[in-house]
Amino acid sequence: MTDPLQTIPLSEIYANALPRDRDTQDAEAQAELEHSILLNGLRQPIEVWQLSQPQDGHRYGLISGFRRLAAARALKHETIPAFLRSPRDIPDAMAAMVTENEIRSQISPWEKGRLILDCIRSDLFEGEEAAIATLFGPLSRQKKARLRSIVLVVQVFDGALATPERLSTARIERLASALRAGWEDLLSDTLRTSGSDTLAGQWAALEPVITEALNPQHGDTAPGTPTAPRRSIKFARGLQIRREVTRSGWILRFSGPEARVPGLMDDVMETIERLFGTEG
Q: Does domain 1-107 sit in CATH 3.90.1530.10?
């Protein structure tokens, strides 16, 4: 149901009345939008609904048009054209926001997973299935399955990855498969000790572990099971040794303060030499 177009004071609109489905804002794109509005005015009104009770002076909650509202505020506008909607409830308003943003702008897989979790944590839905069914109802069964994988990865790695909104669906699904195989502890530990603050560096550290998780050797079992091979060893002084699979074989990665002690690698090489001998 749609009411006629109205002009509403910006001060009366609560922009964060709903959990938003975009975690980050593109500063360049936002500047372009502001320039367009300055030259041509606002071509597409925002959508709001009237709150049952005003919140801090706000009479309306924003459904769609977060970037347009932010641009109008940056340009010091006092009012904005808005369609006053009448959603049945908050989940219905959430579904309208998601639908509008799916059409107008590309939302990353990570942001979709974060939105689902935020809605569940805000008690807007009873669980993951209800949230997906309401917010992403038109999607195919396969795409909904991908959303479940995304939610799983966001649950485990939220706050641990740099710029996770840049992760592709394919990479997220690989991470989800490794998690389901029982590799959460080793993946989390690998990420924590990667020493990188960029997504590229973090993924480079995770990739060997994911590869091993998804391509186990004959008879291999998941970490933590009684017959699992040792994949990581931690020592009292902070030294950690983790094995990683490569295309040509295996490597041992040493990390922690003790890994920088002079002579450590010499000792390791001497031990290996005693075990296997040398040529000639």
A: yes
